Predict the structure.
Amino acid sequence: MPQFGLFLKRALGMAALGLTLALPGHAQAQQAAPANTIDAVRGRGQLVCGVNTGLAGFAQPDSQGVWRGFDVDYCRAVSAAVFGDPNKVRYVPTTPQVRFTALQSGEVDLLSRNTTWTLSRDTALGLDFAATNFFDGQGFMVRSSLGLKSAKELEGATICVQPGTTTEQNLADWARANRIRFTPVVIERLEEIVAAFISGRCDAFTTDVSGLAATRSAQQKPDDYLILPEVISKEPLALGVRQGDARFADIVRWTHFLLLSAEEFGINQANIDQMANDPRPEVQRMLGRNGELGKMLGLDNLWAVNVIKAVGNYAEIFDRHLKPIGIQRGPNALWTTTGGLQYSPPFR
Amino acid sequence: MSQTTIDPRSLRAPPRRPLRLSWSDERVRAIVWQVLVVGIIGTIVWWLWSNTVHNLEVRRIATGFGFLGREAGLPIAENLIPYSPTDTYFRALLIGLLNTLKVAVVGIVLATIFGTLIGIARLSKNWLLSKIAGVYIEVIRDLPLLLQLLFWYAILQGLPGPRQALHPVGGVFLSNRGLKLPWIEWQDAHSYALLAFALGALFTWFYRRDAIRKRILDGRPRPVWPVALGCLLVLPVAIWAAAGAPWTVDWPELRGFNFRGGLNMSPEYFALLLGLTTYTAGFIAEIVRAGILAVPHGQWEAAQALGLRSGQVLKQVVLPQALRVIIPPMTSQYLNITKNSSLAVAIGYQDIVSIANTTLNQTGQAIEGIAIIMLVYLSISLSISLFMNWYNAKIALVER
């Protein structure tokens, strides 16, 4: 029945998880089994990456339909590390509500989509967080014409929020702590919740500050909207993998550290070939001129060269996608240079 | 009946045959096949179940319904009973269930009324009326419901903001925050009056049934309206007056961002109700039309020959017979309204699916969440089916 299609689709998606978990011989179940995501990815010749349904700067198809963004470059980096080719990725757009199910059921190998690392997600949800690639916090955006100065003035407001997110729970906690009454409007699809906010259905829209900046920059007149100064939560956005798959988690984690270290040592897309002759021992080890760090990860020893050639270092990715939409490095600066939170353990 | 002698043929049993352990014995074959089929199904169910449990353990995904007692922390916009984000998942899901029932029950009542009116209009001798009804039915039935819901929601979002709200009469505000109506401040006296009204309605119904029964016996008409007036109006008003006649109107007024006070109908609920009602009314109209056309033409002629007016013909002769054709497919439409209400997630009305989805997302327990959704829809649907089957049996032609 067509009118029942949406519900059916959801139910089927969830039933697929049930079935995946139920059938041991099923191909998907084998992918989903712990400790062999990397074998499944190699066997398939493709990395399946769960990304946002469309958030400017993080993951969005361009005019040619090619996915671009900060999160997308992480998928490309992992693909370059595994295959030596950044383009062996299939992107699966996931809503907040289906993302964990998609990972659990083996529909995607890697979640690179603005997902906050929390204790309950790390434990009860059957997934692991490999690395925090973006430190964020939750904020509010309102129409400038309202003349608000602070989120504390939102008493009695209607607030748009996506369901199934930490944002939704933080909002409830914050409102309780500040004795603010509000009416939520919860719509799952990002485009539709933004449309509801823009049409005036809500007084405020709340999500991570980076998401607010992205949404604001995508409007025709960004100056009509104002991001309030309060940041009400910690949102370490992290790369998610299935629980109990340490080999794949290591690859994802060290790909992130590689991007940070490359920035630290001044290695970028342009100078990667010259850098192979750099005398510093850590650069020599990182780029596979010395030692077998790549092999220890189960990768090609030149994996680092492939990754940097494909996507550049952390600063290049950040500047390419997030700077244009008005996001500052802030806490995402390197600890070693400007005292930010991004820090890579040594390549040794 | 107990006086009549029992037909001796029904007491005569077939001769008992000894059970032979042979493949040529029909009963042995039947038993073997049944044991085999039950065994295969049981093995498959057990196999799926044990694998699921094993795989969940391997992935360290939490299982069980323990999460129902934990704090939900999710805000819900519309609740019939008190709710705050500090309440449990169980209560949040209960709110979701009530929200589903709120839209399904009101939708069923409205769709039945509109559908019946449109179905009758379609059969009208008035050319314009019948064509309008025909076009309505064709357009509404041919467009996907999800599209219609998004259309209605987009229209409601296009309304002016609360500060420029449409204000047709005093106390009524229509804006993109919904429809605001004045409402009385509810007190105990109102509850008592409502209870008296409900009891009065029940009494009136029994009185009317009795009046009809007696009229069939002696032919004397007994007017029902004085009793109805007394039970439905005079008694509740008297009780309300005796309790001090409290009457404070709660006027909606603009304070800060939104309207405070009064009765609110959110755009999400309104769009969903409007979409479900207009869509299903199109189907119900066709069912009503088919039901009326199924009554033989001779029945109309016979009723007219008796001198009944056209309204009476419809009410006394045609509709009672048409109902027998109408009720079974109507049950399907009622089930459809209930299930289609799950499309609410698309426009942000927090029904059971929306809240169960959020719950399973936060707890990661997809299998339990889907089980709850299935249980809820199954219970509602079975209740509707049972009631409609009972009603169908009640109005069915009693063959003598």
About this structure: Chain A has two domains: 34-136+236-338, 138-233. The first strand of chain A starts at residue 47 and ends at 51. Residues 1-8, 25-34 of chain A have pLDDT under 50 and may be disordered. The longest helix of chain A spans residues 246-264.
